[in-house]
Description:
Helix content: over 70%
Radius of gyration: 21 Å
Shape: globular
Number of helices: 18
Strand content: under 5%
Order of helices and strands: HHHHHHHHHHHHHHHHHH
Largest sheet: none
Number of domains: 2
Structural class: mainly alpha
Number of strands: 0
Amino acid sequence: xxxxxxxxxxxxxxxxxxxxxxxxALYYHLVGAKFSTSFQVLLISTAIxxxxxxFQLLYSYFSMDRVQAYYQxxxxxxxxxxxxxxxxxxxxxxERVLLLILFLGVRLDLLQSFKLVLLSLLxxxxxxxxxxxxxxxxxxxxxxLISVTTVLTVSSLWVQQVPYMIFLSALVTVFIFKNExxxxxxxxxxxxxxxxxxxxxxxxxxxQERYFSINFVFTLIFLLLILIQDYEAPLKIxxxxxxxxxxxxxxxxxxxxxxxxxxxxxxxxxxxxYLMYYRVLLTYFLSVNLFAAxxxxxxxxxxxxxxxxxxxxxxxxxxxxxxxxxxxxxxxRKWNLKRECWKHPRKYIVPSIVxxxxxxxxxxx
Length: 365
């Protein structure tokens, strides 16, 4: 079972992305400049990244037909849950926590390393339980349990005591294995489509993709986290604008719908279809960039003027155009999980360009 789930979750694209990220992180750690970060920042970053990555995996994996096939095997549901959580936890340690340690350059003693591993485990378990509650029969008790689980998990960032983390992990594990609901997310929410039949196709797809909302919320959290760090003002501006340029569920809407690009190109009004997608991209990036600019003006550099605001808006237009062109001419075709689209190395192209343009924007304005 462990091996079968591991094969489901690990693809060539994912392995290539991990090795590329690891090589870059090692280079940065050994010869690059280091941010002045603390163990507390590493813990918060680990919690955010682990939660985001786990939600991403769950909403991708549990929409597969394969997960329904697992339910039909003569295996206990708890064995499947245990195997899935084990693989998810181990992959998160390699793909997320290790890279964060290298990028943030925090030196850890044995106790801190153990706390980091425990926090990663607790977040994976908590996200899995919240995911189960979100996608089963809604109830008042379920809402209370989601709130309690979330509050207790967040509280571990401040308590930071090993017995407390172990207790919470054990408690959430009991919740998970006591729940006997089978989770298999429908790929198409027909009710939502019916309510929005006359709307923009891509807005409909976006609202169906619950992970988009999760990604958006965690993007805002990351922006706030960077804002409170002791970085130089120019560096904060560049990092904030770069983070704001990333939202993979949004920027892979065409790739995530297999064969869509071929059908669209055969339509007589394909340009109109692309413009629908462009409006969605532009609306999102304008909103997030302006929010980042507002935070910068309020907290970091009150003297930022109208020229900077204009530059940020132009940057949003460029981001939307680049993402649209990439989706039209370089759509991702060979994938099994949507997560492979979201984690494809292609997603670094536009943020890298934004990083360079941000330097230019800062220099000019």
